[in-house]
Amino acid sequence: MNLFRKSRLAIVSITMMLVVAGYINYEYNPEREKNLGQTIYVNGKDSSEVDVVSIYEEQSSNVSEDTTSYEYAVNKENTIAVFKYDRDNMFSELSENYRQIIANTNTSVDKINEYQIKLNELLCKKNLITMVENIIKSKQIDDVVIIPTNNDNLNVIIKSKIEITKEQIAQVQQTLVDQFGINASKITITASKD
């Protein structure tokens, strides 16, 4: 019986070590480390050409590959309006759900406090996005939509009647990094000329 316990304990220990090793391997991705400080810029008029723009280096390279689902949509009219509508709808639904939970008489005080914090954070995030979109528009960009994702990435679509330069892309990227406090590798910028 004692031998059975020891072998079971050894199996559990080995399993735990494998889980920890797998987690560390998953979290540490050297490929991701190489790309820190880079944002993918998708040229809206030529969907097969992608420029990697870095605010930290003076280089860019052309890469032929599909990058995001937004690339295809950028060429359609009112794309930014559709994405803004969907994003604002999501914020409204979440906000309404949080308010209903807070207003429910069966909700515990702890849950009310938790959802009040979530509601405040959501409203702050929405206000920050609106403010940053307005800042970006002041950089000779006609329209912009910032779409946060579940994994704390930002998908950004910008539109202009004139050709968008790499300098403008770098300015937009720097604004996003400064205002959201996130790494540039978590930002994807897609640009389109009207």
Description:
The structure is a single chain. The protein has 194 residues and is of the alpha/beta class. It folds into two domains: 1-34; 38-193, Orthogonal Bundle (Helix Hairpins). It contains six helices and six strands. The chain has helices spanning 2-27, 30-34, 70-73, 79-103, 109-137, 166-180; strands at residues 38-43, 50-54, 62-63, 143-148, 154-160, 187-193. It has a six-stranded mixed sheet with strand order 3-2-1-6-5-4, with helices on both faces. The radius of gyration is 22 Å and the shape is flat.
Q: At CATH's second level, what is the architecture of the largest domain?
A: Orthogonal Bundle
Main sheet attributes: strand count, strand direction, barrel closure: 6 strands, mixed
Name of the CATH superfamily of the largest domain: Stage III sporulation protein AH-like
Low-confidence stretches: 27-76
What is the CA-atom radius of gyration, in angstroms? 22 Å
Number of E strands: 6
List the secondary-structure elements in sequence, H or E.
Answer: HHEEEHHHEEHE
| End-to-end Cα distance | 76 Å
CATH fold label of the largest domain: Helix Hairpins
Report the CATH C-level class of the largest domain.
Mainly Alpha
Given the structure, what is the number of helices? 6
Gross morphology: flat
Overall mean pLDDT: 75
